[in-house]
Amino acid sequence: MGLLRHIVPLAVCLIATPLPAQILRGKVIDATTGAGIAAAAVRALGAGRDVGHARTAADGTFSFQLRAAGTVRIEAQRTGYRTTVTGELPVGDRETVDVEVKLSAEAIAIEPLRVTARVQPPRRRSLELSGFYERERRGIGKYLRREDFENRSNQNLAQVLSRVQGTAILYAGSNQYIYFPRNGVPSLGRQASASGRSPRKWGAPSNSCLPRLFLDGVRVTYDAQSDINAVVTPEQVEALEVFRGPAEIPVEYNDNNSQCGVILIWTRKEP
């Protein structure tokens, strides 16, 4: 238990890393000259609240994440210019939207916002067939696509999954086990030495409140020799689905032994 008290705070800290989300980026320009405006304050307003903000660089460019997909208005301010609030702009889940915002030094009628590009992750046939997109659309559970983590080098599968809110890593020697703290913290068991006189090394978690794992729809299990990193590498993963309790789990993956959650792993079938 002494080792566990040191382990758990470290594991919980790992969930704080933000996930890639909706990106709003673009440029604030002078409506008359077309030049970029430096140090302009830009923020996105959703339901009247600030859902993301930034200050423009020397060339007038900006970029920031939105806290959630939805419809926003963009407000831009700079000393010497009239504050501009644009019309409504829809931003989809994981979408990157490029915009151009115009500020005027005079009270003239202008169109303040122009969408210059929209970029969304490609839809994969294999994920379509597995029902991934439909479950993601319903919004129950947590979802990661390869675009969310493929550029993060030197991360194993446990580290990728630990970035999902409500998920943590339990360390047993060199092995790593994903669990959901809301369901309780699994305790670490000991494997006996060959002589049976004293414990020799840490084994798999002994009270197994660990999520069930499914690889391409087929259940796989943890054991003392094969932790979650032995199942697959991040480079082989197309998408991940995380369901932290019975109320979230899709019916086809839910049974009487799924009370500690379910993780679905889909491997790459397409380039």
Summarize this entry quickly.
By secondary structure, the protein is mainly beta. 13% of the residues lie in helices and 38% in strands. The strands form 5 sheets. Strands 2, 3, 5, 6 and 7 form a 5-stranded antiparallel sheet that branches. It has a 5-stranded mixed sheet with strand order 10-17-18-15-16.
Question: What descriptive keywords fit this protein?
Answer:
single chain, 271 residues, mainly beta, Immunoglobulin-like, Ferric Hydroxamate Uptake Protein, Chain A, domain 1, 2 domains, 5-stranded antiparallel beta sheet, 38% strand, disordered N terminus
With helices defined by DSSP (H or I, 4 residues minimum), what is the helix count?
5
Mind telling me the CATH class of the largest domain? Mainly Beta
Count up the domains. 2
Q: What overall geometry do the principal axes of the alpha carbons give?
A: elongated
Commentary on this structure:
The protein contains five helices and 18 strands. The chain has 271 residues and is mainly beta. The chain folds into two domains: 98 residues, Carboxypeptidase-like, regulatory domain (Immunoglobulin-like, Sandwich), CATH 2.60.40.1120; 146 residues, Beta Complex (Ferric Hydroxamate Uptake Protein, Chain A, domain 1), CATH 2.170.130. Strands 2, 3, 5, 6 and 7 form a five-stranded antiparallel β-sheet that branches. Strand 13 and strand 14 form a beta hairpin. The chain is elongated, with a radius of gyration of 24 Å. The N terminus is likely disordered.
